[in-house]
TrEMBL record:
The active site is at C128 (acyl-thioester intermediate), H241 (proton acceptor). The gene is asd. It comes from Nostoc azollae (strain 0708). InterPro entries: Asp_semialdehyde_DH, Asp_semialdehyde_DH_beta, NAD(P)-bd_dom_sf, Semialdehyde_DH_NAD-bd, Semialdhyde_DH_dimer_dom. This is Aspartate-semialdehyde dehydrogenase. Phosphate binds at R99. Catalyzes the NADPH-dependent formation of L-aspartate-semialdehyde (L-ASA) by the reductive dephosphorylation of L-aspartyl-4-phosphate. GO terms for molecular function: aspartate-semialdehyde dehydrogenase activity; NAD binding; NADP binding; protein dimerization activity. Keywords: Amino-acid biosynthesis, Diaminopimelate biosynthesis, Lysine biosynthesis, Methionine biosynthesis, NADP, Oxidoreductase, Threonine biosynthesis. The lineage of its organism: Bacteria, Bacillati, Cyanobacteriota, Cyanophyceae, Nostocales. Substrate binds at Q155, E208, R234. Homodimer. NADP(+) binds at T11, G12, A13, V14, R39, S40, S158, G159, Q314. Pathway: Amino-acid biosynthesis; L-threonine biosynthesis; L-threonine from L-aspartate: step 2/5; Amino-acid biosynthesis; L-lysine biosynthesis via DAP pathway; (S)-tetrahydrodipicolinate from L-aspartate: step 2/4; Amino-acid biosynthesis; L-methionine biosynthesis via de novo pathway; L-homoserine from L-aspartate: step 2/3. Its EC number is 1.2.1.11. One of its GO terms (biological process) is diaminopimelate biosynthetic process.
């Protein structure tokens, strides 16, 4: 059987990655519809050797569509998800619009695939930092429940979009030529700099990006009592996020056992060579499906805590790959109808 798929937001960084994945994973496609804003309609995108036209999204865009992969921002998802569902499509939404909606499963296929079964037309893709962290923490949490997570993120420019990736390059070359770095898409100069994530601040003193890691992780793990805190930072890296994670358990968790578990965990490539100081790096995570995890060590300040380090491609497993894997899960389990 093959499926009629629409990409909503086909021209963005994630949309481009979705196309590459659908092509290279040999996804069972009957046909592909590319939807974007009116600004992009009329342009074409090459897919499997053919030039596919981009259409501006309308009420009839979802006729006969089985699966919508949406990555065009929360506003567009809120406007069009209901229309797509009415036409019996399943929407896999990369925006934050529906992630905390009780009726919408929030899914990382390697972590909580079973939750996808209860969808009522929409399945939400978690935020990139949450996908990467839950992929690494879940295999340990399954063996010994995590009590508390302390996360610090080092987030690539790609999280701010394709234009931000270009801007950090422009800023870097400007500085190297002795000129000041100008921030237009980014809130501040990112070249040779970093800054706390500029998502809206809340009255808790946490930005929305940090609260996403807290609230989304609890939903994915199905455990509201896990204590989580996060500090999210934008760093001058192009497309892979890095995260330093501290995990607290009820009782000590052997670093050796944690290494064994993570070395076999799905979606993870374990990278840890103490002799050569080779550990996960963004340049080695970029473009890969797997999230690189390493530097597992006993927290010397607390007998029941472990430290770990990860790097994962923000556009791929952090967004597009996870969404395509959800679509593959629905097809494999025959969970498309709603
Ligand atoms: C960021 N997670 O990196 C957000 C966007 N996907 O800014």
């Amino acid at each position: 059987k093959s499926y009629h798929v629409a990409i909503l937001g086909a021209t963005g960084a994630v949309g481009t990655e979705l196309l590459e994945l659908l092509e290279n994973r040999d996804f069972p496609l009957a046909d592909l519809k590319l939807l974007a804003s009116a600004r992009s309609s009329g342009k074409t995108i090459k897919f499997k050797g053919e030039n596919i036209p981009i259409e501006s999204v309308s009420d009839h865009s979802f006729d006969k569509i089985d699966i919508v992969l949406a990555s065009a921002g929360g506003g567009i998802s809120k406007t069009w998800a209901g229309v797509a569902i009415e036409k019996d499509a399943v929407v896999i939404d990369n925006s934050s619009a529906f992630r905390m909606n009780q009726e919408v499963p929030l899914v990382v296929p390697e972590v909580n695939p079973q939750n996808a079964a209860s969808h009522r037309g929409i399945i939400a893709n978690p935020n990139c930092t949450t996908i990467l962290m839950t992929l690494a923490v879940w295999p340990l949490h399954k063996v010994k429940p995590v009590k508390r997570i302390v996360a610090a993120t080092y987030q690539s420019a790609s999280g701010a979009g394709a234009k931000a990736m270009e801007e950090v390059k422009t800023q870097t070359s400007a500085i190297l030529q002795g000129h000041p770095a100008v921030a237009e898409v980014l809130p501040y100069p990112l070249a040779f700099n970093l800054f706390p994530h500029n998502s809206p601040m809340t009255d808790l003193g946490y930005c929305e990006e940090e609260l996403k890691m807290v609230n989304e992780t609890r939903k994915i793990f199905g455990s509201q009592e896990i204590r989580i805190t996060a500090t999210c930072v934008r760093v001058p890296v192009l497309r892979a996020h890095s995260e330093a994670i501290n995990l607290e358990f009820e009782t000590p968790f052997s670093p050796h056992e944690a290494r064994e578990i993570l070395s076999q965990a799905p979606g993870i490539r374990f990278v840890e060579d103490w002799q050569t100081n080779h550990f996960p790096m963004p340049i080695e995570a970029s473009g890969r499906d797997e999230v690189l995890v390493g530097r597992i060590r006993q927290d010397i300040s607390h007998p029941c805590c472990l430290e770990l380090w990860l790097c994962g491609d923000q556009i791929r497993k952090g967004a597009a790959l996870n969404a395509v894997q959800i679509a593959e899960l629905l097809i494999e389990k025959n969970w498309l109808s709603h």
